[in-house]
Design a protein that fits this description.
Blueprint (H helix, E strand, L loop, with lengths): L6 H8 L7 E2 L3 E2 H6 L2 H5 L8 E6 L3 H13 L4 E6 L4 H5 L10 H14 L4 E6 L8 H13 L4 E5 L10 H4 L7 H10 L4 E5 L5 H7 L5 E3 L2 H5 L7 H6 L8 H17 L4 H5 L12 H11 L8 H20 L16
Parallel strand pairs: 1-3, 2-3, 3-4, 4-5, 5-6, 6-7, 7-8
Helix pairs in contact: 4-6, 6-7, 15-16
Length: 335
Protein backbone atom coordinates (compact mmCIF):
# COMPACT_ATOMS: atom_id res chain seq x y z
CA UNK A 1 0.00 0.00 0.00
CA UNK A 2 2.97 2.27 -0.62
CA UNK A 3 1.78 5.82 -1.40
CA UNK A 4 -1.79 4.80 -0.50
CA UNK A 5 -2.33 4.48 3.24
CA UNK A 6 -0.87 7.83 4.23
CA UNK A 7 -2.18 9.78 7.23
CA UNK A 8 -5.02 11.41 5.24
CA UNK A 9 -6.24 8.02 4.07
CA UNK A 10 -6.04 6.58 7.58
CA UNK A 11 -8.01 9.47 9.08
CA UNK A 12 -10.77 8.84 6.54
CA UNK A 13 -10.87 5.10 7.19
CA UNK A 14 -10.98 5.60 10.94
CA UNK A 15 -14.28 7.47 10.57
CA UNK A 16 -15.85 4.16 9.48
CA UNK A 17 -14.45 1.88 12.18
CA UNK A 18 -13.45 2.29 15.80
CA UNK A 19 -11.76 -1.05 16.35
CA UNK A 20 -9.91 -2.02 13.16
CA UNK A 21 -6.13 -1.78 13.34
CA UNK A 22 -4.84 0.57 10.65
CA UNK A 23 -1.39 0.29 9.07
CA UNK A 24 0.90 2.94 7.66
CA UNK A 25 2.42 2.53 4.25
CA UNK A 26 5.79 0.83 4.44
CA UNK A 27 8.56 3.22 5.54
CA UNK A 28 12.16 2.15 5.01
CA UNK A 29 14.67 2.40 7.82
CA UNK A 30 16.84 4.59 5.59
CA UNK A 31 14.03 7.10 5.06
CA UNK A 32 13.58 7.48 8.81
CA UNK A 33 17.24 7.58 9.78
CA UNK A 34 18.46 9.78 6.95
CA UNK A 35 15.32 11.70 6.00
CA UNK A 36 12.62 13.62 7.81
CA UNK A 37 11.07 11.40 10.52
CA UNK A 38 8.30 13.91 11.20
CA UNK A 39 7.12 13.61 7.61
CA UNK A 40 6.76 9.84 7.81
CA UNK A 41 5.67 9.37 11.42
CA UNK A 42 3.29 12.28 12.02
CA UNK A 43 -0.30 11.18 12.45
CA UNK A 44 -3.54 12.32 14.03
CA UNK A 45 -4.48 10.94 17.44
CA UNK A 46 -7.82 9.84 15.95
CA UNK A 47 -6.05 7.22 13.80
CA UNK A 48 -5.39 4.82 16.69
CA UNK A 49 -5.14 1.87 16.98
CA UNK A 50 -2.32 2.27 14.49
CA UNK A 51 0.64 0.16 13.37
CA UNK A 52 3.86 1.44 11.80
CA UNK A 53 5.12 -0.79 9.00
CA UNK A 54 8.89 -0.75 8.48
CA UNK A 55 11.10 -2.03 5.69
CA UNK A 56 14.73 -2.89 6.25
CA UNK A 57 17.23 -5.64 6.99
CA UNK A 58 19.72 -4.12 9.42
CA UNK A 59 18.88 -5.09 13.00
CA UNK A 60 20.51 -1.99 14.51
CA UNK A 61 18.78 0.39 12.10
CA UNK A 62 15.42 -1.32 12.55
CA UNK A 63 15.71 -1.25 16.33
CA UNK A 64 16.28 2.51 16.20
CA UNK A 65 13.35 2.98 13.83
CA UNK A 66 11.13 0.86 16.04
CA UNK A 67 12.09 3.04 18.98
CA UNK A 68 11.25 6.14 16.97
CA UNK A 69 7.86 4.68 16.10
CA UNK A 70 7.10 3.84 19.71
CA UNK A 71 8.16 7.35 20.75
CA UNK A 72 5.69 8.77 18.21
CA UNK A 73 2.96 6.72 19.87
CA UNK A 74 2.39 3.85 17.43
CA UNK A 75 0.57 0.87 18.94
CA UNK A 76 2.47 -1.78 16.96
CA UNK A 77 5.63 -2.03 14.86
CA UNK A 78 5.39 -4.32 11.83
CA UNK A 79 8.28 -5.55 9.69
CA UNK A 80 7.40 -6.00 6.02
CA UNK A 81 8.85 -9.18 4.54
CA UNK A 82 6.29 -9.41 1.77
CA UNK A 83 6.85 -6.58 -0.70
CA UNK A 84 8.32 -7.95 -3.97
CA UNK A 85 9.23 -4.75 -5.84
CA UNK A 86 12.63 -4.37 -7.52
CA UNK A 87 13.26 -1.19 -5.56
CA UNK A 88 13.03 -2.88 -2.18
CA UNK A 89 14.90 -5.98 -3.34
CA UNK A 90 17.86 -3.84 -4.33
CA UNK A 91 17.95 -2.60 -0.76
CA UNK A 92 17.61 -6.10 0.71
CA UNK A 93 14.12 -5.29 1.90
CA UNK A 94 10.78 -7.04 1.61
CA UNK A 95 9.98 -10.50 0.26
CA UNK A 96 13.57 -11.37 -0.65
CA UNK A 97 14.25 -11.65 3.10
CA UNK A 98 12.17 -14.83 3.24
CA UNK A 99 15.35 -16.50 1.96
CA UNK A 100 17.15 -15.34 5.14
CA UNK A 101 15.05 -16.40 8.12
CA UNK A 102 18.04 -16.10 10.46
CA UNK A 103 18.53 -12.44 9.55
CA UNK A 104 14.82 -11.72 9.90
CA UNK A 105 14.91 -13.31 13.36
CA UNK A 106 17.81 -11.04 14.30
CA UNK A 107 15.85 -8.01 13.13
CA UNK A 108 12.76 -9.02 15.11
CA UNK A 109 14.80 -9.69 18.25
CA UNK A 110 16.50 -6.30 18.01
CA UNK A 111 13.20 -4.49 17.47
CA UNK A 112 11.54 -6.27 20.38
CA UNK A 113 14.46 -5.37 22.64
CA UNK A 114 14.03 -1.70 21.69
CA UNK A 115 10.29 -1.27 22.34
CA UNK A 116 7.53 -2.44 24.65
CA UNK A 117 4.76 -2.35 22.02
CA UNK A 118 4.08 -5.50 19.94
CA UNK A 119 6.47 -6.27 17.07
CA UNK A 120 4.81 -8.19 14.25
CA UNK A 121 5.67 -9.31 10.72
CA UNK A 122 3.99 -9.36 7.32
CA UNK A 123 5.15 -12.06 4.95
CA UNK A 124 4.27 -14.12 1.89
CA UNK A 125 3.84 -17.90 1.84
CA UNK A 126 7.04 -18.25 -0.20
CA UNK A 127 9.25 -16.84 -2.94
CA UNK A 128 10.16 -18.18 -6.38
CA UNK A 129 10.88 -21.92 -6.12
CA UNK A 130 11.14 -21.74 -2.34
CA UNK A 131 7.42 -22.21 -1.96
CA UNK A 132 6.91 -25.45 -0.06
CA UNK A 133 4.91 -25.54 3.13
CA UNK A 134 7.96 -26.93 4.93
CA UNK A 135 10.02 -23.86 4.03
CA UNK A 136 7.24 -21.53 5.19
CA UNK A 137 6.94 -23.43 8.48
CA UNK A 138 10.72 -23.24 8.96
CA UNK A 139 10.63 -19.47 8.39
CA UNK A 140 7.75 -19.07 10.86
CA UNK A 141 9.51 -21.18 13.49
CA UNK A 142 12.75 -19.19 13.20
CA UNK A 143 11.00 -15.86 13.58
CA UNK A 144 8.78 -17.15 16.37
CA UNK A 145 11.91 -18.18 18.29
CA UNK A 146 13.04 -14.53 18.12
CA UNK A 147 9.88 -13.50 19.96
CA UNK A 148 7.37 -12.71 17.22
CA UNK A 149 3.91 -14.08 17.91
CA UNK A 150 1.82 -12.30 15.24
CA UNK A 151 2.19 -13.06 11.54
CA UNK A 152 0.24 -11.38 8.74
CA UNK A 153 0.43 -13.84 5.86
CA UNK A 154 -0.29 -12.76 2.29
CA UNK A 155 -1.49 -16.09 0.96
CA UNK A 156 0.42 -15.88 -2.32
CA UNK A 157 4.05 -16.56 -3.03
CA UNK A 158 6.08 -13.78 -4.63
CA UNK A 159 8.10 -13.99 -7.82
CA UNK A 160 11.20 -11.85 -7.32
CA UNK A 161 11.94 -11.84 -11.04
CA UNK A 162 9.58 -11.70 -14.01
CA UNK A 163 6.51 -10.15 -12.41
CA UNK A 164 5.74 -6.56 -11.53
CA UNK A 165 4.52 -5.72 -8.01
CA UNK A 166 1.02 -5.37 -9.46
CA UNK A 167 1.22 -8.79 -11.11
CA UNK A 168 2.55 -10.27 -7.86
CA UNK A 169 -0.74 -9.27 -6.24
CA UNK A 170 -2.83 -11.23 -8.74
CA UNK A 171 -0.85 -13.75 -10.80
CA UNK A 172 0.47 -16.14 -8.14
CA UNK A 173 -2.51 -18.27 -7.05
CA UNK A 174 -3.98 -17.80 -3.61
CA UNK A 175 -3.24 -20.60 -1.18
CA UNK A 176 -5.09 -19.90 2.05
CA UNK A 177 -4.55 -23.50 3.10
CA UNK A 178 -0.92 -22.75 3.97
CA UNK A 179 -1.99 -20.00 6.38
CA UNK A 180 -4.69 -22.21 7.86
CA UNK A 181 -2.21 -25.04 8.39
CA UNK A 182 0.28 -22.67 10.05
CA UNK A 183 -2.44 -21.74 12.54
CA UNK A 184 -3.15 -25.42 13.21
CA UNK A 185 0.51 -26.30 13.73
CA UNK A 186 1.42 -23.11 15.61
CA UNK A 187 -1.73 -22.63 17.71
CA UNK A 188 -0.09 -20.12 20.08
CA UNK A 189 0.61 -17.72 17.23
CA UNK A 190 -1.80 -15.03 16.05
CA UNK A 191 -2.25 -15.63 12.33
CA UNK A 192 -3.81 -12.94 10.15
CA UNK A 193 -4.54 -13.73 6.52
CA UNK A 194 -4.27 -11.26 3.64
CA UNK A 195 -4.82 -11.38 -0.11
CA UNK A 196 -7.86 -11.61 -2.38
CA UNK A 197 -10.43 -10.88 0.34
CA UNK A 198 -13.01 -8.53 -1.14
CA UNK A 199 -15.83 -8.22 1.40
CA UNK A 200 -16.91 -8.93 4.97
CA UNK A 201 -18.57 -12.23 4.05
CA UNK A 202 -15.21 -13.54 2.86
CA UNK A 203 -13.49 -12.06 5.90
CA UNK A 204 -15.93 -13.72 8.28
CA UNK A 205 -15.38 -17.07 6.57
CA UNK A 206 -11.61 -16.75 7.10
CA UNK A 207 -12.12 -16.13 10.81
CA UNK A 208 -13.25 -19.73 11.17
CA UNK A 209 -9.68 -20.74 10.30
CA UNK A 210 -7.41 -17.89 11.50
CA UNK A 211 -7.35 -15.08 14.04
CA UNK A 212 -7.70 -12.06 11.80
CA UNK A 213 -7.99 -10.66 8.30
CA UNK A 214 -6.14 -7.80 6.63
CA UNK A 215 -7.97 -5.90 3.89
CA UNK A 216 -6.02 -3.66 1.53
CA UNK A 217 -6.99 -2.43 -1.89
CA UNK A 218 -10.61 -3.56 -1.60
CA UNK A 219 -11.09 -1.09 1.25
CA UNK A 220 -9.10 1.65 -0.42
CA UNK A 221 -11.28 1.57 -3.53
CA UNK A 222 -14.50 1.16 -1.52
CA UNK A 223 -14.00 2.57 2.00
CA UNK A 224 -17.63 1.95 2.94
CA UNK A 225 -16.76 -1.76 3.18
CA UNK A 226 -15.65 -0.84 6.69
CA UNK A 227 -19.03 0.62 7.66
CA UNK A 228 -20.28 -2.63 9.19
CA UNK A 229 -17.01 -4.11 10.37
CA UNK A 230 -17.37 -3.00 14.01
CA UNK A 231 -20.78 -4.64 14.35
CA UNK A 232 -20.03 -7.80 12.42
CA UNK A 233 -16.45 -8.54 13.41
CA UNK A 234 -16.02 -6.74 16.75
CA UNK A 235 -19.58 -7.14 18.09
CA UNK A 236 -19.99 -3.39 18.59
CA UNK A 237 -23.32 -2.43 16.94
CA UNK A 238 -22.98 1.35 17.14
CA UNK A 239 -24.83 3.45 14.53
CA UNK A 240 -23.26 3.15 11.09
CA UNK A 241 -22.35 6.53 9.57
CA UNK A 242 -23.59 7.34 6.08
CA UNK A 243 -21.03 8.26 3.47
CA UNK A 244 -22.43 11.80 3.54
CA UNK A 245 -21.79 11.93 7.28
CA UNK A 246 -18.23 10.78 6.64
CA UNK A 247 -17.74 13.58 4.11
CA UNK A 248 -19.04 16.20 6.53
CA UNK A 249 -16.82 14.79 9.27
CA UNK A 250 -13.84 15.24 6.96
CA UNK A 251 -14.46 18.96 6.48
CA UNK A 252 -12.93 20.18 9.78
CA UNK A 253 -9.94 17.91 9.19
CA UNK A 254 -9.51 19.24 5.66
CA UNK A 255 -9.68 22.84 6.88
CA UNK A 256 -7.05 22.16 9.55
CA UNK A 257 -4.73 20.43 7.12
CA UNK A 258 -5.03 23.18 4.50
CA UNK A 259 -4.04 25.75 7.11
CA UNK A 260 -0.96 23.63 7.85
CA UNK A 261 0.06 23.68 4.20
CA UNK A 262 -1.45 20.48 2.80
CA UNK A 263 -3.03 20.52 -0.65
CA UNK A 264 -6.66 19.48 -1.07
CA UNK A 265 -5.82 16.97 -3.81
CA UNK A 266 -3.59 15.04 -1.40
CA UNK A 267 -6.61 14.43 0.82
CA UNK A 268 -9.44 14.00 -1.69
CA UNK A 269 -7.57 11.42 -3.77
CA UNK A 270 -8.40 8.99 -0.97
CA UNK A 271 -12.09 9.97 -1.03
CA UNK A 272 -12.85 9.16 -4.67
CA UNK A 273 -14.21 5.70 -3.88
CA UNK A 274 -16.53 6.81 -1.08
CA UNK A 275 -19.70 6.43 -3.15
CA UNK A 276 -18.70 3.22 -4.87
CA UNK A 277 -21.75 1.74 -6.62
CA UNK A 278 -24.01 4.74 -5.94
CA UNK A 279 -25.81 6.23 -8.98
CA UNK A 280 -24.19 9.54 -9.85
CA UNK A 281 -20.88 8.69 -8.19
CA UNK A 282 -19.00 9.67 -11.33
CA UNK A 283 -20.12 13.28 -10.78
CA UNK A 284 -18.55 13.14 -7.32
CA UNK A 285 -15.30 11.73 -8.68
CA UNK A 286 -15.15 14.10 -11.65
CA UNK A 287 -15.73 17.26 -9.61
CA UNK A 288 -13.02 16.31 -7.13
CA UNK A 289 -10.59 15.23 -9.84
CA UNK A 290 -11.05 18.44 -11.82
CA UNK A 291 -11.15 20.96 -8.98
CA UNK A 292 -9.16 19.63 -6.02
CA UNK A 293 -5.78 20.05 -7.82
CA UNK A 294 -6.26 23.82 -8.10
CA UNK A 295 -3.80 25.70 -5.90
CA UNK A 296 -6.49 27.60 -3.99
CA UNK A 297 -8.96 24.70 -3.68
CA UNK A 298 -10.65 24.48 -0.29
CA UNK A 299 -13.17 22.28 1.46
CA UNK A 300 -16.00 23.95 -0.47
CA UNK A 301 -14.94 21.79 -3.43
CA UNK A 302 -15.87 18.69 -1.45
CA UNK A 303 -19.29 20.09 -0.51
CA UNK A 304 -19.92 21.04 -4.14
CA UNK A 305 -19.03 17.51 -5.24
CA UNK A 306 -21.50 16.11 -2.71
CA UNK A 307 -24.22 18.42 -4.02
CA UNK A 308 -23.51 17.39 -7.59
CA UNK A 309 -23.79 13.75 -6.59
CA UNK A 310 -27.16 14.39 -4.94
CA UNK A 311 -28.54 16.29 -7.94
CA UNK A 312 -27.37 13.64 -10.38
CA UNK A 313 -28.89 10.87 -8.30
CA UNK A 314 -32.20 12.71 -7.84
CA UNK A 315 -32.38 13.41 -11.56
CA UNK A 316 -31.76 9.77 -12.41
CA UNK A 317 -34.39 8.71 -9.91
CA UNK A 318 -36.98 11.09 -11.37
CA UNK A 319 -36.26 9.83 -14.87
CA UNK A 320 -36.92 6.33 -13.62
CA UNK A 321 -40.26 7.43 -12.18
CA UNK A 322 -39.26 6.92 -8.55
CA UNK A 323 -40.53 8.89 -5.60
CA UNK A 324 -37.38 8.67 -3.55
CA UNK A 325 -33.85 7.45 -3.87
CA UNK A 326 -33.00 4.14 -2.22
CA UNK A 327 -29.44 5.40 -1.88
CA UNK A 328 -30.30 8.80 -0.41
CA UNK A 329 -28.70 7.84 2.87
CA UNK A 330 -25.36 7.91 1.14
CA UNK A 331 -25.39 11.62 0.52
CA UNK A 332 -28.27 13.56 2.12
CA UNK A 333 -27.90 15.22 5.48
CA UNK A 334 -25.24 15.13 8.15
CA UNK A 335 -26.03 11.91 9.94
Amino acid sequence: MLDWTDRHCRYLLRLFTTHSLLYTEMVTSGALLHGDPERFLRHDAAEHPLALQLGGSDPVALSECARMGADFGYDEINLNVGCPSDRVQSGRIGACLMAEPGLVAECIAAMKHAVSVPVTIKTRIGIDNRDSYEELAHFIACVQAAGCDTFVIHARKAYLQGLSPKENRTVPPLNYAFAWRIKQEFPDLEIIVNGGIENLDQAAAQLDKVDGVMLGRAVYHNPSLLANVDARIFNDPHPVPTCAAIVHSMIPYIDRELKRGSRLKHITRHMLGLFHGVPGARHWRRHLSENAPQADAGSEVVIQALEQLARANDSANESAGGTGSPTSGYYHGHG
